[in-house]
């Protein structure tokens, strides 16, 4: 029996599912979510934080209205966000909404301050780091298929539908960024036409940020 697939725009009712998608998207290839390091000592899990981030419209990398959800047999199995990048802050979190996140999570002032300081240290205190500078008019982010639904081509179906959404919004160029070593994602993006155009290698991050990190590669695709 064939699987019935459909796509739809996300709503606030989808936030728990979108939080799981964003979490799953953050894992490869290190099998680790970077939010977990920043949340150490707060008593908050990465999933709880991501959900609060979405509820408070605090993401620079795609909020609820930016997500497209793929359903199989009327059940959500995958999602991805397509958004217009801001010009003031390229990092994942809108710090102006951090107080709202803290209120949502019932954080103490100490937790809020500790998280803020770790966040700024993690990104080097630069809200416009060179490696995150957008070169595309429209960015795809937080792409993930639930683990139990992988291996069935759902990622490609979702991305093709999202690219059509970008075309309908008259965007000219789509960009997407992949952590080096995430070969599954890279092959998926290349199979639908994305081409690599810029790589920041591990040496860049060790020299600029003093961290061990595999680096990132940016891919682009002309839409119109």
In short:
This protein has 224 residues and is an alpha+beta fold. It has helices at 15-26, 34-38, 46-55, 98-105, 109-122, 154-168, 183-191, 202-208, and strands at residues 5-9, 67-72, 75-83, 138-145, 173-179, 195-201, 215-222.
Description:
With 224 residues, the protein is of the alpha+beta class. It has one domain: Aminopeptidase, CATH 3.40.630. Helix content is 36%, strand content 22%. It is built from 8 helices and 7 strands; from the N terminus they run βαααββααβαβαβαβ. The protein has a 7-stranded mixed beta sheet, sandwiched between helices. Helix 6 (154-168) links the parallel strand 4 and strand 5. It starts with a strand and ends with a strand. InterPro entries: Acyl_CoA_acyltransferase, GNAT_dom, YpeA/RimI_acetyltransf. This is N-acetyltransferase domain-containing protein. Residues 5-212 form the N-acetyltransferase domain.
Domain count: 1
CATH architecture: 3-Layer(aba) Sandwich
Structural class: alpha+beta
Quote the average pLDDT. 95
> What order do the SSEs take from the amino end to the carboxyl end, as H and E?
EHHHEEHHEHEHEHE
Number of helices: 8
Low-pLDDT runs of 5+ residues are none
Pfam family, one: Acetyltransf_1
Protein name: N-acetyltransferase domain-containing protein
Domain N-acetyltransferase: 5-212
GO molecular function: acyltransferase activity, transferring groups other than amino-acyl groups
């Amino acid at each position: 029996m064939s699987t019935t697939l459909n796509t739809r725009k996300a709503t606030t009712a989808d936030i728990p599912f979108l939080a799981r998608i964003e979490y799953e998207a953050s894992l490869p290839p290190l099998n680790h979510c970077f939010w977990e390091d920043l949340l150490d000592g707060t008593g908050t899990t990465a999933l709880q934080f991501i959900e609060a981030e979405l509820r408070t419209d605090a993401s620079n990398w795609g909020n609820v209205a930016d997500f497209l959800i793929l359903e199989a047999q009327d059940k959500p199995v995958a999602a991805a966000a397509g958004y217009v990048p801001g010009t003031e802050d390229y990092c994942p979190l809108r710090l102006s909404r951090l107080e709202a996140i803290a209120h949502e999570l019932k954080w103490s002032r100490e937790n809020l301050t500790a998280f803020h300081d770790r966040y700024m240290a993690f990104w080097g205190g630069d809200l416009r780091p060179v490696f995150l500078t957008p070169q595309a008019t429209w960015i795809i982010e937080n792409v993930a298929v639930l683990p139990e639904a992988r291996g069935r081509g759902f990622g490609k179906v979702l991305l093709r539908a999202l690219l059509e959404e970008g075309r309908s919004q008259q965007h000219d160029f789509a960009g997407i960024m992949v952590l080096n070593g995430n070969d599954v994602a890279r092959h998926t993006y290349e199979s639908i036409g994305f081409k690599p155009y810029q790589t920041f290698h591990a040496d860049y991050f060790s020299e600029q940020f003093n961290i061990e990190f595999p680096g990132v590669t940016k891919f682009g695709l002309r839409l119109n």
